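Much of what follows relies on a compact textual record of a protein's fold. A complete example follows; check for yourself that the lines match position by position.
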Amino acid sequence: MPRRVEERERCPTGVDALDNILYGGIPRANTVLLTGSCGTGKTSLALEFLIHGAAAGEIGLFISVTEASSKLLENIIPYDFFEDMLIKKGRLVFVDLPVIYEKLGLEKTELNPEEVDLLVNAIADLVRELSAVRLVMDSVTSVCYKLRSEEMIRDFILKLGKVLSGQGCTSILVSEIAPGAQRYSMYGVEEAIADGIILMDNLERRGDLLRTLQVIKMRGTTHSRAKYVLDLTAEGVLLVPLLKGGSSAGAA
């Protein structure tokens, strides 16, 4: 008799339709690449993942690589489900990566392997100090600009994913790709290393530009690979199946 695979504990995203697609949510401790071109809603989905976790008592850490946290916070305010007390009580923590760079003396344009280790250890220490179980890095592509080769990018993501997973932290790494790109990450190595890939895209149909979402892979769970239309609302991310004709049906 084949040995039964133990069911992985899930980390609900808080987006009901996405959790249904993933049969309960992202498997705990997975590192997920949330990828797409500009304007597809990646940051909004990542923020909602942290906010819902914080509301459920789970500490979430948002590491902002290029945009100041103060500006990001302005984008949270329209959400009906967001409460300031989540930040005041330390359940939702925002850190600007340039501040970490400055403390570590990593402000130059390129990092060497030893400095990559310093960065990974600093992030791991921060997760440990906060007891964070959810993390978002927006975007990992901007960090990769400071690495000199695909080997270093692979090494960085492998080490980061391993140390976060070891601490039981479920992580979303936001990745930027060009519109119409034939791969799921800027350098092509990130997608092979990540435990999961969620692709967000723009689709033009009948004169409208629709946002779409599709789970490409997710280790530790079966999932739908269908494409869904995504809408950003004050209630959060809403998903409905994309029909072959380009219209949408009832919620998943």
User: Anything to note?
Assistant: The chain has one domain: 10-201. The two ends are 35 Å apart (CA to CA).
